[in-house]
């Protein structure tokens, strides 16, 4: 007989291992990148912990690791049109095109995501046979580049634009039968009490009402979704930082504002209803809550990846310390160099992951 305690030794290989919960034999399906007893024992979407962390929700993965979407209405569609990506399930062989995708990295601008694709091509795959083509250019909305198992997609600015892209990407991964995909968001942000040029790996998202949730108005009511990111994945990405880096890396909360000016307590917008003292009091409060940076997508990204049972992480560089000012005045060349810092950390994680899995075929 086995009691209800969980006793797990982290595996020395990436094969599934078995644990016992309340007498039931279950398989852990975590594909560990790092083996360290100081990290969270399981990823949030591991089969052994899903029931506890997502009570009442159906497990979101099939036995082969592909995504199981909860919306049964999709089964009734003759063809599902991913309108904003310019793809559909009738005219495109999505498994052939995207079935090998393991990593999806999304970010604001088309230029930045092409640059990330180039960065991964040269730094992870050494530029071998990588021809960059915008796979969704005829949609006239988002840009998508594929480098081996890495998909790099622009999502625009703010939650509405980002969630439109992210939700269609989630459906794309489902139809493509991608196995255990991991989704990252890289971007820029304003820091709180940390030097400009620092990188923040997010632990959770905070909305404008200072709640760790993403609130969506749905047919006249508010749907609240928890905005918590995968703890182990965040820890692993944070561990990619090195003392040799020219910048500091922090692990903490991220506020996602719905507005760039008043929503982030700035004083330099066309409208302002608060004083400088109000601003500083608010920002200090955020800092005391564990918020390390402010951007415009975090709660929604955290909530939707969590709901889909997909491991998600946010890695952003800070362009300014908001406790010292509102305007980004650093010269453009320096800012462009800083924007490569989240790319380097995510690329390092991808490289480490592929090494742990004996490469990519």
Q: How far apart lie the N and C ends?
A: 42 Å
The helix/strand order is EEHEEHEHEEHEEEEHEHEHEHH
CATH T-level fold name of the largest domain: Rossmann fold
Overall number of structural domains: 2
Task: Tell me the Rg in angstroms.
Answer: 20 Å
Mean pLDDT: 91
- Helical content band: 25-40%
Bulk shape: globular
Oligomer: single chain
Sheet with most strands: strand arrangement: 8-13-12-9-14
Give a quick summary of the entry:
The protein is of the alpha/beta class.
Helix/strand layout:
Layout lengths: L16 E5 L2 E5 L21 H4 L27 E2 L4 E2 L5 H5 L4 E5 L2 H14 L20 E4 L2 E5 L4 H18 L5 E10 L7 E8 L6 E6 L2 E6 L4 H8 L10 E8 L19 H13 L2 E5 L2 H11 L2 E11 L10 H7 L1 H17 L5
Parallel strand pairs: 5-7, 5-8, 8-14, 9-12, 12-13
Antiparallel strand pairs: 1-2, 3-4, 6-7, 8-13, 9-14, 10-11
What do these coordinates show?
It holds the Pfam family PNP_UDP_1. Belongs to the PNP/UDP phosphorylase family. One of its GO terms (molecular function) is uridine phosphorylase activity. It comes from Bombyx mori. The chain has 361 residues and is α/β, with parallel strands linked by helices. The protein is built from 9 helices and 14 strands. It has 2 domains: 60 residues, no CATH class; 296 residues, Nucleoside phosphorylase domain (Rossmann fold, 3-Layer(aba) Sandwich), CATH 3.40.50.1580. Helix content is 27%, strand content 23%. α3 packs across α9 and α4 runs parallel beside α7. The longest helix has 18 residues.
